[in-house]
Each structure stands twice: as C-alpha cells, then as structure tokens.
Design goal:
Length: 418
C-alpha cells in the first residue's frame, strides 16, 4: 500500500513537472522569443521540435513583427551600397549597418540559365542588367531585374522578393513570359490585409518596335494564387494619362496612382487620380483637386495610415491629409512649414509616424526631419557618405521571419553572406 502511494506521488510530481515545463515554454514562446532578433531565433529552432514548430509558424512571424525595430533601407546602384539606417526616439540617425545579403544574387541563376549559350560561344560578353527597387513590406524586399540581350535582341525581366534576414528569395517571372518585349515601368509591392495576401501591381509597356504605337498593360500578381491577372478596367481609365509616377500609395487596401505633373497640366481639367481596390481588383477614379495647381511640386505619402500630400511653393510646404478615405472631400491641411526647414534636402522617404528622411548632396548626407516641429529645435544627428550615390530607392525595413518561400510556389533559396 505504501509502495502504491509512493508511485502515485511520483506520477503526480512528474505530471506537475511536465505541466510546469510546458507552461514555462509557452511563456518563453509568447513573451520572450518575439523580442529577439531573427538571427537568434533561427538558431533557436534547433532547441527542440516544439520550438522549431512554434518559431516557424506564420502566427509567430506576424507577432514577431510587432516588436521589430523599424529602420530605413538604402539601396544605391553606384557605388553598390546596401545599408540599413536605424534611428532613436529623438530622430537621431545611428551609424549605418551593412545589409548581409546580396540582392543581385536573387537573379543570378536566371541570368546564367538564359545567357549560358551566349557565354559559351562569346565569353567576352559580361552579363549585366538593371536591378530596380520596387518596395519593402514586413521585412520583405521586392526588386525588378531587366537585362537586354543585344545578341538575341530581347529583354529578360523578372521580379524577386527576398528576406535579407533569412537569406531567402522567390523569383516571379513576367506575365506571359514568352513576350520578352513586355517590360515593367511602374510598380508596387505590399501586403493586402483584408485578403491576407502579398501582391505586386505593375504597369507593363509592350515594346513593338514603333515608339508611337507602344501599348501598356496593368497586371496584378497574387502570391496566394501564385499568378498574374490583367486589370483591363485600369487600362481603360489610364488611357487619358501620358505617364504615371513610379510612386504608388496604398491606404486601407486601396492603391492610389497619381499622374506625373507637367507644365501643361493646368490645361487638362479632366486629370484624375486612379484608385484600385487590391482586395477585389476594382477600379475607381478620384478627381484631381484644383487647389493642387497652386503648388510647384506635389508628393504623395502615407502617414499614420492616411493618404498625405506634401505640397511645395517657393517659400513654404503645406501638408494635407485625407481624413476619411470614404470621403474624397475630407482633405485637411495639417500644418504649414517654412522651406528653410528642409534647406537643401529632398524628401526621399517617410516613416509610418510622419518623420521624413531627407537627402542632401555635396556632401552626400541623410537626416530625419520632423516638419511638424519648429526649425529651432535641437538639431538631429546626420549620416554622411563619401561621394554621390546613384540611389535605387529607400524604404521602411524591419527584420522579420516571414519567408518569401512560404508566400507561394516555385521558389528558390540562397544562403550566403557578403
């Protein structure tokens, strides 16, 4: 009898130990691991099957984003710079960090496959092309590669989405890859929360040898279905525009595409802004506000989840915000600031909270500017670069566990450091 009671006590103690261990592991998974950097979490996957399963889950990857530190990513074509800029709560930029991932290698295999025959018989030809910055979202960086083959007289092109922290990437070919003359000239990449899908929206130009008869097409790529779909309604609406900006803004899953302004725009009262609902691929037109013609330059951004316009004159800037996305007439001027606030700097990016990354030349430098504050505030720390940069683009970047390989099918993986 005493032996049975002892065994029961041992069983109870073992059960309590197991429960305590499980409870402790759940606390670690829920409260501690989400605050750790990606490199550490990748190592921790080998601790146990439970940790591997938990850290690899999409739910954990999304939760981890809430604790990730926002930085600016800076990509330059010449010199080939791939850097991250972090900043503190006082808008001081910290020393730049090198991005430990070669973005160009996302396309290396595709280039070599296409050019293998040429290189075999003409080794003096060096594979080269143009890598363009499309955008960033949740730790993913989207790029577009174009290479013109002079021998075969065709253009090779494809998109790629990579996660520099995980050293992984997925390659996305052009729609209808047999048409080499189809080249993307404007694009957007991001996450559509209402349908839990990552998408690429692109305006492609169809080069047919006659510049006056070139046509364009709009296509949307869904990572969930892993395929392109053509948006004919967007093409019909956009026939009134000569050109569209590369910068595309998205608020509440609606994409806003604005026209490039020219000196003749005052004579074009039918100028519109195009809207595309990314959840349903529905197109909507928005009227071009007459008061915008009072300004020399107009730039669209997203600040605090609101569509925002930064308008400049010779001596000041006005910042307008669309307070209600369902009411196009709800534009409201947030504040006005002197041109001296920016000085020689040009705005190249905006944080989600409305702080502007400014860039100046000679010398090449970057600085965070808060236009809503008085110019007499304490100056912020700047970051300098030698020479002048040929900038590909800048974006908001966070380290994340979201794998581009998990976004769709037909993917590739590289594990390399530079």
């Amino acid at each position: 009898m005493a032996e049975m009671e002892k065994n029961n006590n041992d069983d109870d103690n073992s059960l309590e130990t197991l429960n305590a261990t499980a409870f402790s592991e759940n606390l670690i998974i829920d409260l501690i691991l989400p605050r750790l950097p990606v490199k550490t979490l990748v190592r921790f996957k080998s601790v146990s099957k439970f940790w591997y399963s938990a850290i690899s889950s999409p739910q954990f990857a999304k939760f981890h984003l809430k604790f990730s530190i926002h930085k600016f990513i800076i990509l330059a074509d010449y010199p080939p710079i791939r850097l991250l800029l972090s900043y503190d709560e006082h808008n001081n930029l910290n020393d730049s960090e090198k991005l430990g991932f070669s973005l160009e290698l996302c396309f290396t295999k595709q280039i070599h496959q296409e050019l293998h025959q040429i290189l075999q018989f003409q080794p003096e030809i060096t594979p080269s092309g143009v890598v363009e910055f499309v955008g960033t979202c949740n730790g993913l960086v989207c790029l577009y590669f174009r290479y013109f083959d002079l021998v075969k007289d065709k253009t090779l092109a494809s998109f790629a989405v990579c996660n520099p922290a995980l050293h992984e990437h997925s390659e996305i070919p052009n729609p209808d890859g047999s048409r080499e003359e189809l080249v993307a000239l404007a694009y957007w990449f991001g996450y559509v929360s209402s349908v839990d899908d990552y998408k690429i929206v692109a305006k492609f130009v169809l080069f047919n040898g006659d510049a006056e008869r070139e046509t364009f097409e709009f296509h949307v790529f869904s990572f969930k279905s892993w395929g392109w779909s053509r948006i004919y309604d967007l093409e019909r609406v956009c026939t009134t525009f000569d050109r569209l900006t590369r910068e595309v803004m998205v608020v509440n899953d609606v994409l806003y595409w604005t026209p490039l302004l020219t000196s003749t725009d005052r004579l074009r009262p039918k100028r519109k802004i195009v809207g595309l609902n990314l959840a349903y691929d529905q197109v909507k037109e928005f009227s071009w506000m007459e008061w915008l013609f009072e300004y020399i330059n107009v730039d669209f951004f997203v600040i605090n989840e609101c569509l925002t316009i930064i308008c400049s004159t010779l001596n000041h800037y006005d910042i307008w915000s669309l307070k209600d996305p369902n009411n196009w007439g709800s534009w409201e001027k947030l504040f006005c600031t002197s041109s001296n606030q920016l000085g020689s700097m040009r705005i190249v990016n905006v944080t989600c909270t409305g702080k502007f990354l400014g860039r100046s030349y000679l010398p090449e430098r970057f600085k965070i500017i808060d236009l809503s504050k008085n110019i007499n505030v304490e100056p912020q720390r700047e970051v300098y670069f030698p020479g002048n940069l040929v900038l590909l683009g800048t974006g908001d970047y966070v380290e994340s566990l979201i794998s581009p390989i998990g976004l769709g099918k037909s993917t590739k993986k590289e594990d390399h450091e530079v």
